[in-house]
TrEMBL record:
This is Sigma-70 family RNA polymerase sigma factor. Gene3D superfamilies: Winged helix-like DNA-binding domain superfamily/Winged helix DNA-binding domain. It comes from the Bacteria. Pfam families: Sigma70_r4_2. GO terms for biological process: DNA-templated transcription initiation. GO terms for molecular function: DNA binding; sigma factor activity. Residues 82-133 form the RNA polymerase sigma factor 70 region 4 type domain. It comes from Parablautia muri.
């Protein structure tokens, strides 16, 4: 009797062992299938091109942080504080030329018409203004480094 009981226990152990092996084999197949799906359909964020990555995020913008300039009836918004500060240091004519040229994307001829000036004068104002802005901004970035 003891022998049949130990034989029965051994059979039960073998059956349990077989069921565990079948379950693990099924899990392995499911895992391999799932990993194939992920490899085919998922992309790591670090592998995304920058253009697509930028589409996934939103940056809050608060109007309080921006600077506004009134130029010939246009309200021009400048988001960068350093640029706005540099623009403030220019004369009104030079600032208006820069704002209309770069922020409103107007040509020299259009600006000249709006400001009742000659196109070559606008060109000179823009050229000198850019040189002045460069000096001002380089000076302020040097101060920040110290």
């Amino acid at each position: 009797m003891e022998q049949s009981s130990s034989r029965y226990e051994q059979t039960i152990r073998h059956q349990f062992d077989r069921i565990c092996k079948m379950a693990l084999k099924g899990e392995k197949v499911d895992y391999i299938r799932h990993m194939g799906y992920r490899q085919k359909n998922e992309v790591m964020l670090s592998e995304l091109p920058e253009k697509e990555l930028n589409q996934l995020s939103i940056m809050d913008e608060y109007k309080v942080e921006n600077h506004y300039f009134q130029v010939l009836g246009y309200d021009i918004e400048v988001k960068d504080a350093l640029i706005a500060e540099a623009l403030q240091s220019l004369t009104e004519k030079k600032r208006n030329v820069i704002l209309l040229s770069y922020f409103m994307e107007m040509s020299d001829a259009d600006i000249a018409r709006e400001m009742n000036l000659v196109r070559s004068t606008i060109h000179e104002h823009r050229k000198r203004s850019l040189e002045m802005l460069k000096q001002i901004m380089e000076g302020s970035t040097d101060e920040k480094k110290m």
